């Protein structure tokens, strides 16, 4: 049984040992601790499909945004779509550990999408079918340095995720992630052995709004740096997604259009500081 709170859950029986999760955190920390020239070997470049893959800082999208020093590394995990030039070779075990993590998460996403279907009394495959055989897993490694003015500087501005489901591995010591509910922000407690499962916009669309992708943000910390690893599970870009037929009826009319490649719509709206899901509402 899935126990959602604010459309987020802390998953503990995921088949990965606490020491394996610590190894994933450790290689993340080691990568960000490398000298800048070393990290820049994996810099984003213009030729990457959406300009997101690779290492870099946050892009400044509006005048109000304050430089936050956050560093990120985005990598496509699916074996057939990998661009190894963005996969760090330092620390030495980085690629092996990330490969193991990919294999394990590909099993967990199937289980979660099936469990979501069952929780709504639907056929097991209805979310999985929309996720499709070409479902993509994109990893986003985040590094938030110590920040002298956490009152002024945000680590990640409030947003929802474009994915169907996000798996978030949080830092095992430093908090920072917060979810919004009823205009208040709530901290996510750290459970080191847990993976945080977050409903993304595309699960909101498929479930015809029964699930809602929660707004979240990351605050900075003046004492401690923080890392996290988000894996975004995205339906294949050629896959059309939309509300599952059995979730549409007279009492619950269709709320969202059918859509392909939601990520590109998401990025466009995000840049304009509009909530992306509005783009596909009927
Ligand atoms: O760093 C975190 O805890 C959350 C990161 C996040 O929300 C994201 O990458 O979309
Ligand atoms: Fe997020």
TrEMBL record:
Short name of one Pfam family: 2OG-FeII_Oxy
Coiled-coil regions listed: none
Record GO terms (molecular function): L-ascorbic acid binding; metal ion binding; oxidoreductase activity
Keywords annotated in UniProt: Iron, Metal-binding, Oxidoreductase, Vitamin C
Gene3D superfamilies reported in the protein's UniProt record: B-lactam Antibiotic, Isopenicillin N Synthase, Chain (2.60.120.330)
Domain Fe2OG dioxygenase: 135-235
Residues annotated as signal peptide: none
SUPFAM superfamilies named among the record's database cross-references: Clavaminate synthase-like
PANTHER family, alphabetized: OXOGLUTARATE/IRON-DEPENDENT DIOXYGENASE (PTHR47991)
Annotated family: Belongs to the iron/ascorbate-dependent oxidoreductase family.
Name of the protein in question: Fe2OG dioxygenase domain-containing protein
Source species of the chain: Castanea mollissima
